[in-house]
Design a protein that fits this description.
alpha+beta; four-stranded antiparallel sheet; 4 strands; 69% helix; DUF7546; membrane; transmembrane helix
């Protein structure tokens, strides 16, 4: 190979190396930007907690109870960032959207956030303060339906519904989404667990109290499991 022929080759090699370094730098910059955004979010959440407990007479009785809402919120936001809805025909997108909305309404209903109305001509709305994430709690009772807005639950259920929508756009994910849909709502089975505990213990108030006391931690663990399973792309495990 002559010297003239070797120069372009070396040039291409240098260009490739430069491009690789540029992509690496951009990737590092993106990682730093993401880390910075999460750090800002965590600082804002910490400031909200400090302000609430510093400016009110509320006290921290259970740390897990106070932190659980932010686990839901942050996990839900993380999942929304990680998962993109894949392109799909319009008919499939509409069907997946209808299923996701139905799933969201089921979650609200079985957890008691959505219920029947007053049946009368008048309704009412009430706003109550609570620890950040738990509150502000907005309660609405109308003629046709009633609704209780608990911020972290609403954000968590919206995130799960979006994940189900994204996964249903892939035909191979339908079975997984259905299974996770049942597993993700611990409140669906919580009443059954409570009945079993009551039957075994003869309705012991101590046993029932222990189950209720752990309900926040158990529901948070179930939520994290559901998010983790729905974030994973089922196509990685092959088609069946």
């Amino acid at each position: 190979m002559s010297g003239d022929e070797g120069v372009p080759a070396d040039g291409r090699g240098l260009a490739a190396a430069g491009g690789s370094r540029l992509r690496s730098a951009l990737s590092d910059h993106g990682d730093r930007g993401t880390a910075l955004r999460w750090a800002v979010l965590l600082c804002v959440e910490a400031a909200l907690l400090l302000a609430y407990f510093g400016l009110t007479d509320a006290t921290v009785i259970r740390l897990g109870y106070v932190l659980a809402p932010f686990v839901w919120i942050n996990a839900g936001l993380w999942a929304l960032v990680r998962v993109d809805a894949p392109p799909a025909p319009r008919r499939r997108r509409v069907a997946a959207g209808v299923a996701a909305v139905g799933y969201f309404l089921v979650l609200l209903t079985v957890t008691g956030l959505l219920g029947g109305g007053t049946g009368g001509p008048l309704g009412w709305i009430d706003v109550g303060m609570a620890s950040p994430g738990w509150g502000p709690v907005v309660r609405f009772a109308g003629t046709l339906f009633s609704f209780t807005l608990v911020p972290y639950r609403l954000i968590g259920y919206l995130a799960l519904s979006y994940l189900v929508y994204a996964r249903l756009l892939s035909a191979t994910a339908a079975a997984l989404s259905g299974v996770v849909g049942l597993a993700s709502c611990v409140s669906c089975g919580f009443s059954v667990v409570l009945s079993l505990v009551a039957g075994v213990t003869g309705g012991s108030s101590a046993a029932l109290g222990a189950v209720y006391a752990a309900s926040v931690e158990v529901s948070t663990a179930a939520f994290l499991l559901a998010v983790a399973l729905l974030v994973v792309d089922p196509s990685r495990f092959g088609r069946s």
